[in-house]
């Protein structure tokens, strides 16, 4: 090998044998030319739109270049070969009119709670006595009863509780509690003047581990219902700033929902399956309880984790709304029945679907306090835990209400960090979808927001350090199309943390789901991710005149589809098309959908009678023939009691009860 050949080899411009390379081929002039070609050609291709920017790797593949994450994506959140999702301004002119500051919640007519609790006890809040007109505390007597969940029978809802017969006197206005749930009552001058409820976290397992055993990181998933990524930025900037700047959270910019509402978007997270797949295996219909289905908490329980599942506004909860819940208690700590009972007993300031207050406390704040108790108790006992908690009351019904909870959520996460409670905890803060109704949903940005909920993932520092490539993949995937199925695979990976350091021999590029610690393919499309066109935010689209013949045909097809779904339900009136409010044409490439077919999707927003229901449907045209509604038909306005005669949770969106016509 001559000197010029050696220099070529040293520059990394030649691979393998260089014996046949002539000396003059590696002249200075040639090296410069070859260097320019090798280094600049990929960038020229990118500028021409042929390759994705973040597919260009640095020499050290163990870290992800900040330049790649902060790259100019030319107006797109996701800008890959398979998907382009546009960036959105939270205060864009098209939605700004719908953003406002809501009135503060007023709990219990501003009368504060008389009792409060810590991890193990309840105690009197003396400054509150004056609000109950108590001038002589010696005349005040208080006691508590324990209560517990009982397995529901027959068609009973999953909210069955049994109370102890005896009411234990609260001596000196404080008491050490060994029970999980208690009811407190107080009498003053022979009249009951106070009722309250408290939840505790008594020890139920003996699976404590050495604090240095990091191979069992805790899992803490906190959900905030119906908040898009953009609306989270809009409404909760303080919480956002703390997550990103203090906890180092990774924001999943391309997290796309796969179905309509909470239940059908969380089943992929918790079980790894679509609801229709569960119906084939463990949950055949709405009257069957969910005991035969396997969820993530079952997997972690088998590994010795203490498990918690809870939600507020539980009457319309994940497993409860027009469903039967569980027969046997599904987790070690099950908050939902407690929520249901207590909100019925002392809930107040109800605003549409949910009680906003529990006595003198905000419902969502009470729920977060319980989660804090769980995390603190598990830390004290050195008990690994899997905690999944879903908060609904703050955000389910109104676009702007999340702003009222910004400080509370900020303080929740800050306390956990400041107290050292999440050092070995994977934290996922997430939503299921954006707001699904209201005027904003009839804008194009509102439509996109509804399909793109927020997800933030925080991993312990030691995982970032010991598995840098996995963490680099997580950051890279923040700019890829991702789904609830991917989140399921990601959470499962913590059952065997050591697997994060193992290279995959082969990658299935047609898979429906990937762990976010593996690289999600840049050519992933909605089709390969099994996101129907109706929910897909990757397609390019244009406005279409509502008087266009194809739009009218698409609208009529959508109404016909809804009536077909209601066939056999005599209690529901046949719907007719009243008006077409707007329409968009979505474009697909042959590669993205079906090679060789002429495919178009029309997304139409329509109003029907009776009931003035506003719906959004995506109708597929294949070879100039309208063939199917993709996904489901979305309801954009509230149906209230219009569908009270229907028990199927899907069909409640469409049904207008015949009995309502007979009342006029």
UniProtKB/TrEMBL annotation:
InterPro entries: Alkaline_phosphatase_core_sf, DUF229. Pfam families: DUF229. The keyword Protease does not apply. One of its GO terms (cellular component) is extracellular space. Keywords: Membrane, Transmembrane, Transmembrane helix. The chain crosses the membrane at residues 32-51. It comes from the Eukaryota. PANTHER family: FI08016P-RELATED. This is Uncharacterized protein LOC115880669 isoform X3. It comes from Sitophilus oryzae.
């Amino acid at each position: 090998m001559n000197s010029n050949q050696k220099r070529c080899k040293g520059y990394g411009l030649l691979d393998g044998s260089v014996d046949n390379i002539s000396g003059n081929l590696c002249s200075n002039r040639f090296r410069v030319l070859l260097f320019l070609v090798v280094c600049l050609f990929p960038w020229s291709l990118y500028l021409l739109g042929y390759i994705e920017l973040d597919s260009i790797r640095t020499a050290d593949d163990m870290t992800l270049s900040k330049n790649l994450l902060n790259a100019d994506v030319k107006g797109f959140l996701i800008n890959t070969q398979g998907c382009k999702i546009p960036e959105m301004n939270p205060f864009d002119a098209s939605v700004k009119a719908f953003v406002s500051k809501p009135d503060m919640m007023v709990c219990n007519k501003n009368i504060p709670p008389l009792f409060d609790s810590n991890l193990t006890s309840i105690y009197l809040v003396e400054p509150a006595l004056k609000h109950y007109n108590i001038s002589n505390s010696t005349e005040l007597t208080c006691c508590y009863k324990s209560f517990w969940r009982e397995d529901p029978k027959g068609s009973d809802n999953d909210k069955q509780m049994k109370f102890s017969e005896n009411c234990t006197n609260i001596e000196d206005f404080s008491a050490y509690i060994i029970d999980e749930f208690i009811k407190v009552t107080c009498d003053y001058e022979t009249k009951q003047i106070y009722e309250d409820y408290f939840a505790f976290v008594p020890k139920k397992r003996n699976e404590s581990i050495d604090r240095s055993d990091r191979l069992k990181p805790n899992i803490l998933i906190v959900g905030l219902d119906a908040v898009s990524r953009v609306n989270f930025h809009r409404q909760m900037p303080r919480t956002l700033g703390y997550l990103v700047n203090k906890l180092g959270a990774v924001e999943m910019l391309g997290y796309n929902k796969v179905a309509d509402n909470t239940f059908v978007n969380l089943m992929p997270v918790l079980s790894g399956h679509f609801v229709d797949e569960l119906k084939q295996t463990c949950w055949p219909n709405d009257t069957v309880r969910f005991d035969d289905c396997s969820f993530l908490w079952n997997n972690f329980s088998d590994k010795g984790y203490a498990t918690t599942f809870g939600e507020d506004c539980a009457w319309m909860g994940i497993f409860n709304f027009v469903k039967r819940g569980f027969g046997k208690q599904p987790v070690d700590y099950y908050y939902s029945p407690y929520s249901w009972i207590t909100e019925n007993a002392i809930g107040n300031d109800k605003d549409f679907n949910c009680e906003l207050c529990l006595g003198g406390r905000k419902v969502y704040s009470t729920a977060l306090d319980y989660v804090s108790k769980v995390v603190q108790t598990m830390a004290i006992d050195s008990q690994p835990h899997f905690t999944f908690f879903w908060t609904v009351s703050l955000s389910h019904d109104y676009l702007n209400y999340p702003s009222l909870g910004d400080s509370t959520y900020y303080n929740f996460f800050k306390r956990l960090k400041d107290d050292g409670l999440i050092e070995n905890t994977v934290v996922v803060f997430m939503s299921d979808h954006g707001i699904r109704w209201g005027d904003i949903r009839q804008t194009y940005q509102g439509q996109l927001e509804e399909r793109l909920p927020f997800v933030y993932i925080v991993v312990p520092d030691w995982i970032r350090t010991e598995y840098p490539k996995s963490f680099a993949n997580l950051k890279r995937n923040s700019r890829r199309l991702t789904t609830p199925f991917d989140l399921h695979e990601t959470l499962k990976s913590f059952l065997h943390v050591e697997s994060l350091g193992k290279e995959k021999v082969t990658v299935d590029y047609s898979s429906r789901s990937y762990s976010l610690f593996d690289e999600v393919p840049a050519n992933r499309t909605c089709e390969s991710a099994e996101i129907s066109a109706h929910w897909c935010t990757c397609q390019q689209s244009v406005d279409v005149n509502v008087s266009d013949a194809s739009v009218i045909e698409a609208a009529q097809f959508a109404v016909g589809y809804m009536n077909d779904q209601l066939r056999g339900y005599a209690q529901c009136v046949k719907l007719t098309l009243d008006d077409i409010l707007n329409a968009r044409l979505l474009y697909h490439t042959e590669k993205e959908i079906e090679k060789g077919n002429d495919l178009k999707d029309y997304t139409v927003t329509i109003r029907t009678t009776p009931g003035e229901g506003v719906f959004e449907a995506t109708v597929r045209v294949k070879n100039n023939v309208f063939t199917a509604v993709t996904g489901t038909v979305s309801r954009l306005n509230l149906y209230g009691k219009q569908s009270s005669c229907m028990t199927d949770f899907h069909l409640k969106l469409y049904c207008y009860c015949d009995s309502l016509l007979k009342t006029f």
